[in-house]
């Protein structure tokens, strides 16, 4: 079990696979099974190609996030917060399952945005995804902004887009104020999220990596765990 009193947590897609949401780079990952799907996550491809947008919206309509439920891994981090030991829950996930599990929104720092909202790339209007899904279901393959006619996109950060600086600053602050950094279900290949491990290591903080596949930080980590997150994480955060 983790005995540190101040813990910063970084989560990736691996924590949500037990909730039925596939990861990206794992053996059954979206990009592993269909490398062409990466185009849907590239902002330049998305803006330039109606075909890519149609494919992306079709994918969005079918994503498991709409009905997925938190698993024991998510609930373990709620318990860590309840114990008063969580400095911040930094996530690369866009599924909203941490909040659905009961984690306080002010402690959840969504580095890559959220699938639950939609942005207009022209007028910057933001609307709930729930307002757009019915349009997709009724046959609108590439819904445009109803105010300005601009391209709509889920409020997630695609390759080629910058992270929200305020969110990243909060993630850095949570890391700096922690005694230990815990990386859960992330390949630690995407920056600047993975760089938070460097921030912790350079400050002499222990790093625990919990991921099914090897990561670039395994050799520097204090502990590396390959066991299932949904069973291992609850045990790690349980107080003696």
From TrEMBL:
Keywords: Metal-binding, NAD, Transferase, Zinc. Its EC number is 2.3.1.286. Pfam families: SIR2. Residues 1-240 form the Deacetylase sirtuin-type domain. The active site is at residue 112. GO terms for molecular function: histone deacetylase activity, NAD-dependent; metal ion binding; NAD+ binding. Signal peptide: none annotated. This is protein acetyllysine N-acetyltransferase.
């Amino acid at each position: 079990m983790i005995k540190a009193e101040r813990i910063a947590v970084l989560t990736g897609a691996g924590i949500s696979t037990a909730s039925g949401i596939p990861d990206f780079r794992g053996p059954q990952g979206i990009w592993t099974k269909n490398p062409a799907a990466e185009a849907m996550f590239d902002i330049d491809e998305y803006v330039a190609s109606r075909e890519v947008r149609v494919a992306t919206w079709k994918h969005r309509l079918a994503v498991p996030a709409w009905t997925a439920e938190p698993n024991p891994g998510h609930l373990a981090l709620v318990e860590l917060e309840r114990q008063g030991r969580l400095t911040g829950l930094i996530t690369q996930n866009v599924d909203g399952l941490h909040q659905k599990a009961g984690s306080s929104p002010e402690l959840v720092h969504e580095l890559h945005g959220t699938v639950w909202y939609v942005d207009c790339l022209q007028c910057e209007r933001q609307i709930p995804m729930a307002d757009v899904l019915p349009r997709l279901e009724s046959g609108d393959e590439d819904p445009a902004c109803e105010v300005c006619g601009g391209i709509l996109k889920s409020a997630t950060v695609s390759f080629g887009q910058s992270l929200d600086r305020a969110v990243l600053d909060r993630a850095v602050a949570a890391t700096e104020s922690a005694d230990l950094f815990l990386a859960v279900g992330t390949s630690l290949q995407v920056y600047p999220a993975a760089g938070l491990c460097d921030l912790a290591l350079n400050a002499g903080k222990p790093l625990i990596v919990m991921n099914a596949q090897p990561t670039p930080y395994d050799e520097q980590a204090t502990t590396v765990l390959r066991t299932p997150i949904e069973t291992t994480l609850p045990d790690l955060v349980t107080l003696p």
